What does this fold into?
Amino acid sequence: MGLAQQFGHPSGFLGAVVGRGMAKGNAELSRWVAQQASAHHDSGVERVAELGPGPGVGLEALLAQFPEAQVWGIDVSSVMLAQSRKRNRLAVSAGRLTLLEGGVSALRAGAPADIVMANHVLYFWRDPVAEMAQIRSLLGPRGLLAIGYQLKQNMPAMAQRRFPPAGHQLYDTDDEVTKLATTAGFGSVKQIVKGSADAPEGRVMLATV
Ligand SMILES: C[S@@+](CC[C@H](N)C(=O)[O-])C[C@H]1O[C@@H](n2cnc3c(N)ncnc32)[C@H](O)[C@@H]1O
It folds into this structure.
């Protein structure tokens, strides 16, 4: 498996190394998206899920941000689930965090969710409208989808070069991402940029049912 594929489904020794790199490189965005989700959901958050938590920094942030909530972490990679488990061992043993191997359909375990967060996962969905529509169907009536991502031109050179040939989808504009959510049936969609517009550190799309 090449390096680009490792980001979409980390496995083996290289996958574990990539996971440790993501824990450092993506931590700030993960924490910021969790804060944005909290700021944009009025109250009463009881069920929160993260799709593709990778090494589990975002789960750690969600557990801290929503101390009353039950949290689910769902990832296709067993190597990443092991890192998420290690990073959030206390929450797992306390029964607050459930980790499941799988894709969007495994979200059923946490449905109806108040918030679903997915950071740097969008690029790996072959049919993002179908994935978002499925997430929408598993959100509660006041549910919020928070998608953290980076536009193609702001990504590291390696990703810009190697992701498309590996079959990963990169996006040039926020409008393209918004259109996916509205086509999937989301009612209201908002984008926020982290950092300056010239050198964004990432962005979030917040979409409500
Ligand atoms: C680039 S990593 C991002 C990890 C973490 N969210 C972060 O920002 O550091 C993408 C993660 O999503 C997982 N993933 C990819 N496609 C997925 C899917 N359809 N459902 C759930 N997880 C998925 C991968 O296994 C990997 O852990």
